[in-house]
Structure to design on (385 residues):
C-alpha cells in the first residue's frame, strides 16, 4: 500500500467502527466544504478530506481511505477531484460520484468565475500589478519546493535520475510536448522494469510525495 | 472547430495526461493554453497560478474556469471545467471497478517508475519557463529567496507567504 502521511497511519488501527452510508446530497455538501476550504490544491487537500470523510462522518474506514488515495494517485487529473470520484462511487455508486465531484468543483468554479470577471478590468491597476509582480517570484519558489519534494521521493535510483535528465532534455532541449514525454516515460518504465518488477511484486509503489 | 469544442478538447488533454496533481499539472496547462492556443500570455498564466494559490480548489479547475471565461464567457468556463473533469471520471471509475486486479499489475507499476521521473523533469521545465518573466529584477530574486526561506525554514503556510509577497509587491512596484 502506498505511503501516506503519518496521521493516516496513526489512525489506521483506531478506526474500526462500522461505517454509515451517506446520501448523494450528504456527499455533495461534504465535498463542497472540502472544495471551499482547501487552498493550494493537490496534496494540501488531503488532511481536510480525511477529517471530513473518515473522522467527522465515519463513511470510510482508514484502510479504505488509503485505497482511495492510491487510486486517486494512479489516475491522471486533479487529486482532489479523483478522491471525490472514488469516495463518491464507493459510497453512492455513479450518482454518488457525480454528486461528490460536483461539490468538489463548484466552489473553485464560482470563485474563479468571480475573479475572472473582475481580473481583466483591474489587471492594469497599479496596485494589482504590484501585488501580482510580487507574487510571481514567490510562485517560482513554491514550484521549486514542490518539485524538490516530489523529486526527493521519486528520483531515488540511478535509473530514475537518468530518466529524469533525459526527460528534461526532451522537454527543454528539443521542446517535445509534455504528453509525449509522459508516454515515453511510461514506455521506458515498462521496458526497464517489467522483469525486475516480477521479483519484487510485493513491494509497495512509491508515493508521489506530499505536494 | 468551435471555440467551445477547442476548449473542451484542450482541457480534456490536460485532465487525461497530467499525473500527480497540483504543480505537476502546470507544465501541460502552460503548453496547451500559452504555447499552443495563445489563450493567455505567459505573464497572465503566472497570474492565474498565483490566483489559484490564494483561492480554494484544485489548480487545474481554477485554470480551466479562468481560461474558459476569458476565451468564451461563462459557457466557455463550464466547457473547460467539464473537459478537465471528464477523463478523471472515466478513468477513476474504471480503476475503482478494477482496483484489486489493477493494483497488482506489474506493468502498471513499471510504467509509473518511468512516469514519475518524467513528471519531475516536467516541473523543472515549467519552472525554467516562468523564470524569465518572474525574476526580472533584483528585488524579484530577493522575494523568491525570501519566500523559499520562510516556507522551508520557518514553515510558513504558502497562502500566507503569497499574501506577504503580494503586500511587498504593492509597496515596491506600485
Amino acid at each position: 500500500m502506498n505511503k501516506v502521511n503519518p496521521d493516516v497511519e496513526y489512525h489506521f488501527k483506531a478506526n474500526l467502527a462500522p461505517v454509515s452510508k451517506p446520501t448523494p446530497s450528504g456527499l455533495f455538501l461534504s465535498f463542497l466544504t472540502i472544495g471551499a476550504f482547501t487552498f493550494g490544491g493537490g496534496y494540501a487537500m488531503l488532511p481536510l478530506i480525511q477529517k471530513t470523510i473518515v473522522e467527522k462522518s465515519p463513511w470510510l474506514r482508514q484502510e479504505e481511505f488509503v485505497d482511495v488515495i492510491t487510486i486517486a494517485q494512479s489516475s491522471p487529473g486533479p487529486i482532489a477531484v479523483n478522491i471525490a470520484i472514488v469516495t463518491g462511487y464507493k459510497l453512492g455508486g455513479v450518482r454518488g460520484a457525480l454528486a461528490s465531484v460536483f461539490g468538489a468543483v463548484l466552489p473553485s468554479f464560482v470563485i474563479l468565475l468571480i475573479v475572472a470577471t473582475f481580473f481583466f478590468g483591474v489587471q492594469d491597476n497599479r496596485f494589482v500589478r504590484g501585488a501580482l509582480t510580487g507574487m510571481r517570484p514567490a510562485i517560482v519558489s513554491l514550484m521549486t519546493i514542490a518539485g524538490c519534494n516530489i523529486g526527493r521521493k521519486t528520483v531515488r535510483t540511478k535509473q530514475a535520475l537518468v530518466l529524469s535528465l533525459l526527460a528534461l532534455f526532451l522537454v527543454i532541449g528539443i521542446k517535445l510536448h509534455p504528453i509525449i514525454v509522459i508516454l515515453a516515460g511510461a514506455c521506458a518504465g515498462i521496458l526497464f522494469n517489467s522483469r525486475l518488477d516480477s521479483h519484487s511484486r510485493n513491494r509497495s509503489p512509491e508515493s508521489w510525495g506530499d505536494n | 472547430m468551435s471555440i467551445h469544442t477547442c476548449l473542451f478538447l484542450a482541457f480534456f488533454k490536460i485532465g487525461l495526461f497530467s499525473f500527480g496533481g497540483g504543480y505537476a499539472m502546470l507544465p501541460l496547462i502552460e503548453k496547451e493554453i500559452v504555447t499552443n492556443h495563445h489563450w493567455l500570455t505567459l505573464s497572465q498564466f503566472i497570474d492565474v497560478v498565483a490566483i489559484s494559490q490564494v483561492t480554494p480548489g484544485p489548480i487545474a479547475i481554477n485554470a480551466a474556469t479562468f481560461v474558459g471565461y476569458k476565451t468564451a464567457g461563462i459557457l466557455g468556463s463550464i466547457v473547460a471545467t467539464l473537459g478537465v473533469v471528464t477523463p478523471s471520471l472515466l478513468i477513476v471509475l474504471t480503476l475503482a471497478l478494477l482496483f484489486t486486479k489493477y493494483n497488482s499489475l506489474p506493468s502498471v507499476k513499471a510504467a509509473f517508475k518511468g512516469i514519475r521521473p518524467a513528471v519531475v523533469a516536467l516541473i523543472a521545465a515549467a519552472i525554467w519557463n516562468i523564470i524569465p518573466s518572474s525574476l526580472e529584477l533584483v528585488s524579484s530574486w530577493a522575494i523568491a529567496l525570501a519566500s523559499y526561506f520562510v516556507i522551508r525554514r520557518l514553515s510558513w503556510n504558502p497562502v500566507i507567504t503569497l499574501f506577504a509577497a503580494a503586500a511587498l509587491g504593492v509597496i515596491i512596484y506600485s
User: Anything to note?
Assistant: Chain A touches chain B through 108 residues (CB under 8 Å). Chain A has a mean pLDDT of 78.
